[in-house]
Amino acid sequence: MRSVRDGRPHGRSAHRAGGALDDVRRLGGPRRPGAARGLAIDLGSSGARVWVPGHGLVARSAWEDGPGRPVRRGRIVDAESCGRLLARLADTALGADRYGSVIVLNHPVLAGAEHRSRARELLSALGPSEVVVLSSAKAVAACVGTPDSGPLLVVDMGAELTEVTLLVDGRIADARQAESGLSDLEGAEAGTLPGHLTGDVLDMIQSMWRQDRHGAVRGALRRGPVLTGGGALRPDVTHRIAACLGAPVRLAGDPSTAVVRGAGLVLDSVLRHRTGTGAVAVLPGRQR
Predict the structure, then answer these.
(1) What is the DSSP letter of 41?
(2) Which of 33, 129, 174, 271 could join 166 via S-S bond, C-beta 3.0 to 4.6 A?
């Protein structure tokens, strides 16, 4: 059963002990005084990914079904468990002194105000100087290098969510979401996954097309939608989408990590624009 949500801009235990988080612990070592510090985190439906400036992608942690799992359908459902995970990541990557540090956290485009507010509260409790709550589509746009130029369609096919977002000059103009993803289709009859996933994507793009009065969707299709998430790793899915649209498609490099890598680029940009005193300006958590 497809559940599709429309969006308009306005203007497994929770994780395995050790495992991927050990990669963060290996960063180690004291930082230079005044060094830029930051952390970019993608809390996806399948697990967490972490990016640290100067080190790149340092951790992946897969959720396991069961009580205490912090994220479902891209949204924080267990704030306590999520807070413990974020605290461990911050302790390891940023150390005890958080002054001048910046944390960027991704969220699904249509995650909703409650999710974004909860994410800001959890991050602010860690004590950074600045918090940035960033939509996944804008992170992907930053990753592929076209954040502010013309119309762009981002198709994110994740484990439990599929989202299509239309960006125009870097701003979210429209978005659709199907609350289903790769994990929902794993038990489907062999060979039916590409059809199900492609059907969701085409339904959302067609819905956008019908409501687009300025030709932005047509322009974005002409440029080629950017495909990301685990679904973009499946040629049977990507080829079918391209054939049904009659348009070229572009794959984000390493689609499964494009969101967190884009968040890392946004983080680098924030850190580069520090004040002349060498510290990041202290600002309230903001959405991008």
Answers:
(1) E
(2) 174
User: 74, 72, 81: which is closest to 15 by C-alpha?
Assistant: 81
The reply to whether 122 and 35 lie within a common domain is yes
pLDDT, tens digit (0-9, with 9 covering 90-100), for 160-176: 899 999 999 989 999 99
- CB contact at 8 A, 58 and 24: yes
Question: Which residues are bridge partners to 25 per DSSP?
Answer: none
Sheet-wide strand order for 250-251: 4-7, 171-178, 162-168, 151-157, 226-228, 250-251
In a domain, 267, yes or no: yes
Number of domains in the chain: 2
Residue among 288, 5, 10, 3 nearest 173 (CA): 10
Question: Global pTM?
Answer: 0.81
Tokens found for residue 88 = 């461990």
Residue 56, SS3 per DSSP: strand
Are 220 and 273 in a shared domain?
no
- Do 88 and 152 lie in one domain? The reply is no
Compute the half-sphere exposure of residue 36: CA atoms within 13 Å on the CB side of its CA. 18
Q: Under 8 Å CB-to-CB from 191, ≥6 apart: which residues?
A: none
7 domain-assigned? no
CA distance 209 to 254: 28
Would residue 5 count as lying in a domain? no
CA distances from 110 to 66, 244, 284 (A): 25, 25, 22
User: 155 with 72, same domain?
Assistant: no
Together in a domain, 131 and 262 = yes
Same domain, 145 and 247: yes
Q: Are residues 166 and 229 in the same domain?
A: yes
